[in-house]
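quick one, 1022 residues, struct below
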Amino acid sequence: MTNSWIGQRKRGLLATVAPLSVLLAVPAVAQSVPAANQNAENNAQVAQGAEQADAGTGGDIVVTGSIIRGADAGVSPVSTITAENLDARGINTVQAGIQALASNNGPALTNSFTANGAFASGASSVSLRGLSTNSTLVLFDGLRAAYYPLSDDGTRNFVDLNTIPDDIVDRVEVLRDGASSSYGADAIAGVVNIITKRSVKGVMGRAEAGISERGYNANQRLSLTAGTGDLDEQGYNAYISGFYYRSEGVRARQLPGPFNSSDERGICSERIGRRVCGPNNITNGFDANGQVTGNFGINTPNFYVLPADAANTTALGRYQLLNPAAGCLTGTLYNLSAAELAQRNATAPGTVCQVDTQRLYGNITPDIERVGGSARFTARVGDTSEAYLQVNFQQATTSYTGSPTTIRANAPAGILFPQYSTSQNPTSAIDPNSAILALPVYVCPRTTVGACNETNGTLNPNNPFAAAGQVARLVGQLPNSFESTKTRSRVYRAAFGINGTIFDDVDYRFDATAMHTDLRLQQNGYVYIQHLLDVIKDGSYNFVNPGLNSQATLNYLTPTNITNDSSDLLQAQFTLGKAIMALPGGDLRVAVGGSIFYEAIDAPSANSDENGPTQRYFRLNAFGTKGNRTVSSGFYEVNAPVLDQLTLNASGRYDHYSSGQSAFSPKFGAIFKPIRQLTLRGTYSRGFRIPSFGEANALPTTGYVTQSLSSIPAEILRQYSINPGAGQICASDAPANCSSYITNYSIGQTTLASQDLEPEKSRSFTAGIKVDPVRGLSFTVDYYNIRKTGAITTPNLSPAIDAYYAGAAIPSGFDVIPDAVDVNNPNAKPKIAFVRSQLINAQTIKSEGIDFGINGFYDFGTFRWTTNLNASLILELSTTVKGKRQTYVDTLGNFNLTAGSGTFEWKGNWVNTFDFGDFALTGTVNYTSGYDLSAMDQGDAYKDCGQAPAYFGCRVKSYITADANASFKVNDKFTFYVNVLNVFNRLPPIDPVTYGAYLYNAVQGGDGIFGRQVRAGAKFNF
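---
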């Protein structure tokens, strides 16, 4: 039954994409059209064979996942992405090509996350098998790379794909199998090996520019490479290369609806038996009846004040604009009618400013600029050896400007002190000196000690109630200051190696690398808490007329925050290999090796409270980490072709960490080829992942997880009804009746590191079949099954959240910190601001699925057709904690792994190329399946629609796009090409729940959010 269902889904996918792909086939690069099987994600053996002429001395190669030189192929499934393949598909960066892999799923980190508050701002990472960014190992020419200094979600270390030197990449090999036996820790889900060009002759380069049809996302690419020398004839080759890449950031207001506005009233559903439409989240916006009946929205760049007694304990009236004569500093002014005002609470103002925050401040992608250079010298040493030296430099800069500056908030999670708050009075978890933000009656010099009163101060010119002896409670954001983030990453890498043959029959290889990353994180527009208290105390900031403030005053209130982070990697590795004896199927080969590497991260907190609870910023996370370790390893591999039809393989690796941990990782595999047309392969392995620096040594880290109204008890929601007297009762199926305080709801998940964590352990096996029925056609199917035990995770927060809302005792191991009360509903139970817990080894994670590949070519005489289909089906991604299993395939979970970006059941692409000689056409169809809006780790049953709001259906739709590429070869030296991406201009499906993008899933949608894009360029080769 299951197999039949899978078959139906597979046939449906093929039926959908087949006609589209043939219809859209457009020109590919005719100068070097990829061989049919070079593009085969699931046919790595043929692709590797095509690379033999440029892979090493004498044509021998080392397959990713093996240390034996000259083997025909490894036992594990390997995907190969060539530079020609990326060109044919119109993909202009290697990181984008890796993100497009069918086996990349769920918790991947894309560049779009940078513009939406990602911890690892400025970076991109891959997540094979949906097992998160820290379970995929990224290598450069088979050697480790330095981690990005900042961690994904503050805990997971990874290698930034933006550091790949695109212009000298020959191919990327993706080992879709556990590989700890070859490479050690982090290779539980697989390995991405970036392989650079061994030699370059002549001068080559390209110039390229593109833009979306709607006029945004402009991007440019320039590269130039020059090389001299012939390894075979002259015994050496040297080349240098440089590139420049720029991608213009995109703001939400540039997109079409609904992605460009906070108004979600156009999103409607009849899922619950009646038509329900989404809320109008424009602050102080109109409801479905064209009235302003909702609660007063305070987070806009307009200042409102409310009179309160001198002790700031009792409100004495309604909010009002601080400067009514100036009107709205941002937004549209609206005067409520008497009927509208009567439906609001006693503190709501009669005049409001309507502000569409998404349209004004929303970001889609940051500005990205990358520049870099590389040089390599390769030379023969004697008759049987070859040595190389390679150096790389790359600088990547990202920047974006976000929301107006916040002045009323809880400080981020404290390290040494409780959080300071200007939005609520002290609690057990809030600093005892906290107070609701208010403009005092009198102002005094900031150096004044003690109370400020009529004897030592003057009436506050910012406080309209000062003459009456009342303070002015202040809400709003700074209208002339905006939060912005800029990252500048500089990567320096050098590698040296020599390989060849000694003693006639002993293969050897020595490689060494050093890599250093400097990351400069600059953040502007964030309020320094003590400076806010200072300017309120002395009246030096003009709240009445903010535009009159000097730049010096703004700089004092929001000083630039610069954090310098770094990471390092040093590695030396040596292998020896020899044919021991002849077997019926060929030589029995044995290889042994050793490695030592040093890795370090120094990422200080960007917002420490070491000098006190107010000597820090609002809204900047406090996370940071520092650590280093040395790892010594020994490894081996045996390859035994016991028969012409059967080859057995065994490998193992022992790793010892200076921090005290050690692990042995074995692997066994076999290839069986009973007939020429049929190949069977399989592997079994064990692996491990060492706790990251972020997990073992980090400062408290807070990430925000969007909550749905359905997760809040009905009796709590009723307390947030905007107009209960008129029957407008807040409920999960009536979001328009709820205060925006509760509809815009995210819980801060504060994670505490632990030095007591043990390494994660894994067990993995694969089984595959490759069928070559006729020349030029192959089919592959590879099954994988990975089980990770002792997985490092935060505990399930649901018991703590449920206990808080039920008024019960909070379970041991959790701290729940309430948010400030809603100014519109001061007697309601506050929503949750933060839940704190410590990382633990608790979960068992299982990932299981099937990869499919169809690869073929046929020469029609006048043209050559190449087709490649790659698809990945996830059968299971689940966690088990204390015997309770939670499964996530085809849902929005796992939130702990994916931050709510989902686990896609299907992902794939189909590429068709028609080569006419000087003219070539390529069409690509990309598919990512939809998913149910539920997540078992958020308290839902499996696929029960538990996270879906009432105004939306249960499922997010699947997403299909089509790309086209046309290329014309002018002569042997020049080629022109045009890419049309997202030919049918299909925007991503709406997702009102996912985290990391507004109303769409950034992992599912990718660059599709830009709509149709056109890119044109020229390549030359002399």
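The longest strand covers residues 477-502.
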